[in-house]
Amino acid sequence: MRRVVFLVITGYTLLIGYWMLFGFGREPQPGYLFNLKPLCTIRQFLQVDHFSPKVWMMNLVGNVGVFVPYGVLLPLFLKEGRLLLKSLCLFLSGVFVLESLQLLTKRGSWDIDDFILNTLGFLLGYGLYLILKRSGR
């Protein structure tokens, strides 16, 4: 079972990497883009005068939703113990690498708000993992 979960995580990570670096028409930008101010980008997407349902869905809901599977899969892959802490550290390390690749390739931005939204998705997935584990599935 652990081997299957590893293969699913690997495949899904490659898909996420593709989306983050090449998907959705991403092209290299002329400069490096980054945001270190928490909630700055999130606020921009929620402003009424700049609100666009498509952009809102892709950036806010997408940054949460696509990371939910990691919250379910990483605990299945890792051994018992401090499961949340281990899973979260591994997850954040992966997000750090992907965000850094976006910055270095100039195909996106290194954004602290992405960390916040991605982590929310992971935690929702971890909650789902706990519900499934308690129900015996």
Automatic annotation (TrEMBL):
Q: Which InterPro entries match?
A: Teicoplanin_resist-assoc, VanZ-like
Keyword Transmembrane helix appears in the UniProt entry: yes
Pfam families cross-referenced by the UniProt entry: VanZ
Alphabetically list the UniProt keywords. Answer: Membrane, Transmembrane, Transmembrane helix
Per the UniProt record, which residue ranges are transmembrane?
A: 5-24, 55-76, 83-103, 115-132
Q: Does the keyword Ribosomal protein apply?
A: no
Q: Which residues form the VanZ-like domain?
A: 14-132
Please identify the protein, giving its name as recorded.
VanZ family protein
Native source organism of the sequence: Paenibacillus faecis
- Organism lineage string: Bacteria, Bacillati, Bacillota, Bacilli, Bacillales
